[in-house]
Amino acid sequence: MDREQYDIMYRAEGSHWWYRGMRRNTLALLQQFLAPGRTYSILDAGCGTGGTTEDLMRFGVVTGIDFSADALGYAASRGLRRLVCGSVERLPFADHTFDLVTSFDVIYHWGVADERAALAEFRRVLRPGGLALVRLPAFNWLRGAHDVAIHTQRRLTVGEPSARMREVGFEIVHATYANTMLFPLAVLKRTVDRFLPAAPADLTVPPTPVNLAFEAVLSLEVPIARRVGLPVGLSTVVLGRA
Predict the structure, then answer these.
(1) Which fold would CATH assign to domain 3-241?
(2) Whole-model pTM?
(3) Which DSSP symbol is given to 105?
(4) More reliable by pLDDT, 211 or 139
(5) Hey, which of 94, 153, 168, 231 would disulfide with 120, CB 3.0 to 4.6 Å?
């Protein structure tokens, strides 16, 4: 991404309903599969500006890796120290190093030439029985101006990353869409964006009442997403076991 996009991300991660809600929902999903009280060795693959990396520390020791020195600079400003500059397609770690690998909205990016290679790397650095949680934007027909700004190459259905993870040796233990209840509004926004190029960007923080309302709606998805999965949404979430 361009440096200005990392700046926008860094500023929005603490307040924007999408970041706050998706982080909370993701952590709730992980809690279902991680043993309470255990300290895990975690790799946040494509850590960006470090907002989620910071939250993952509740589960153990977290290492963040990103190919962008700009992103890592923002992450370091949060006080994060276990940061590595590198590619998710060629992780600079030994086999069987981590208990958990997370990758949030990374391998869909044009900077990742081979998403299968990245997933194979996640599998390689995981210890036997370790988990990989991958989140990606869903449905290519939902591409918008924000995708152009952040260099989106592909948006995927939930079946696509699931199949690729199986190909490299993962057992899929959970797969779901996310951000479902606001899906109709997102479709409407994408439609409006096509006719009104000056429409607000996706990471524009809305007025406080709207921001809080959207975050509350997103939180309602947690019980369903954790148990049976959601049939449609703005993101795909897949959890695999090595």
Answers:
(1) Rossmann fold (3.40.50)
(2) 0.88
(3) S
(4) 211
(5) 168
